[in-house]
C-alpha cells in the first residue's frame, strides 16, 4: 500500500510533526511505502494565481478551472503541483495532519487543495463523489486543537470541531476518497509551566499510543457517511426520505 502524509505545521518539532512521524513508523513497520509532504518545509505557495501558468489559454481573463484543465491536458502544470498530483494518484491512503487554527485548517492546507485538486486531473463532471478519481482510496484527518475536548464538543463554547472539519472531508470525498472518522487531539498547548507541561506530555504520550494502535488496526476504523447520487433529484435536491448525514446537506 502507498501512504501519503501531508503535514501542515510550521514548526519541525511540533506535536503535529511528531504524530506524522508516528504514522510513518506504523505504516512502514507493516511493509507499506510512505511519503511525507511537509508543506511549510517545502515552502509550498498556497495561492492559486495567473502567474502559476506559463502557457495561458486565455491571457485576457484568468479562469482558474480552465487554466487547470488546459495545463493538465498539456502536461504543463507547475512542477510541484505535478509532483503532488502524482503522489496523490499513487496513494491508497492519505493523511492530512494539521492544527485547528481559527476554527479550521491552516491556510496552506486550503491553498494546497486549491492548487492540487485540479479540474480535469482530479475531478470533472463525470468523476465526482462516489465516482471520483480517488474512489477506493481512504483519507484521514489527524487534527490537534489547543482547546479542551469539552470546548470542542457540539455543546461546547468553541463549537463542534468535527462539524467544522466537514468541508475538508467533503472536498476529499468530492474527488472520490472514502473518509475515515477524524482523529482529534485536544488540549495541545504551548507556554505551560513545568508541572503543567509534564502533565500534558504524559497525556499526549497516551494519545500517541492510542493513535499508533488505531492505525495498526485501521480496517476497523469507522468511515464518515455521505449521501450518494441516488439520494438526489435531477435538480440535485435531496430526495424526500433520503438520509441526512450532516447539517450541511439536509431536508428543508
From TrEMBL:
Gene Ontology cellular component terms for the protein in this record: cytosol
Domain Flavodoxin-like fold, residue spans: 1-204
Keywords: Oxidoreductase
Similarity field: Belongs to the NAD(P)H dehydrogenase (quinone) family.
SUPFAM superfamilies given in the database record: Flavoproteins
EC id: 1.6.99.-
GO function term, MF aspect, one: NAD(P)H dehydrogenase (quinone) activity
Protein name, as recorded: General stress protein 14
Amino acid at each position: 500500500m502507498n501512504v501519503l502524509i501531508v503535514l501542515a505545521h510550521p514548526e519541525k518539532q511540533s506535536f503535529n510533526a511528531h504524530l506524522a512521524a508516528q504514522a510513518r513508523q506504523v505504516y512502514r513497520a507493516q511493509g507499506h511505502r510512505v511519503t511525507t509532504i511537509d508543506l511549510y518545509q517545502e515552502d509550498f505557495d498556497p495561492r492559486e494565481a495567473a502567474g502559476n501558468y506559463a502557457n495561458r489559454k486565455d491571457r485576457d481573463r484568468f479562469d482558474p478551472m480552465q487554466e487547470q484543465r488546459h495545463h493538465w491536458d498539456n502536461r504543463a502544470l507547475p512542477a510541484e503541483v505535478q509532483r503532488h498530483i502524482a503522489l496523490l494518484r499513487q496513494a491508497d491512503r492519505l493523511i492530512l495532519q494539521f492544527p485547528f487554527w481559527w476554527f479550521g485548517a491552516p491556510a496552506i492546507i486550503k491553498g494546497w487543495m486549491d492548487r492540487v485538486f485540479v479540474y480535469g486531473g482530479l475531478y470533472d463532471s463525470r468523476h465526482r463523489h462516489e465516482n471520483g478519481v480517488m474512489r477506493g482510496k481512504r483519507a484521514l484527518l489527524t487534527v490537534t486543537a489547543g482547546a479542551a475536548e469539552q470546548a470542542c464538543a457540539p455543546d461546547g463554547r468553541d463549537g463542534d470541531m468535527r462539524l467544522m472539519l466537514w468541508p475538508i472531508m467533503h472536498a476529499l470525498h468530492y474527488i472520490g476518497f472514502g473518509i475515515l472518522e477524524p482523529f482529534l487531539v485536544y488540549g495541545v498547548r504551548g507556554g505551560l509551566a513545568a508541572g503543567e507541561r509534564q502533565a500534558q506530555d504524559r497525556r499526549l504520550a497516551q494519545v500517541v499510543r492510542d493513535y499508533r494502535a488505531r492505525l495498526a488496526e485501521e480496517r476497523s476504523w469507522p468511515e464518515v457517511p455521505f449521501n450518494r447520487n441516488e439520494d438526489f433529484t435531477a435538480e440535485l435536491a435531496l430526495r424526500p426520505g433520503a438520509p441526512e448525514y450532516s447539517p450541511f446537506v439536509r431536508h428543508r
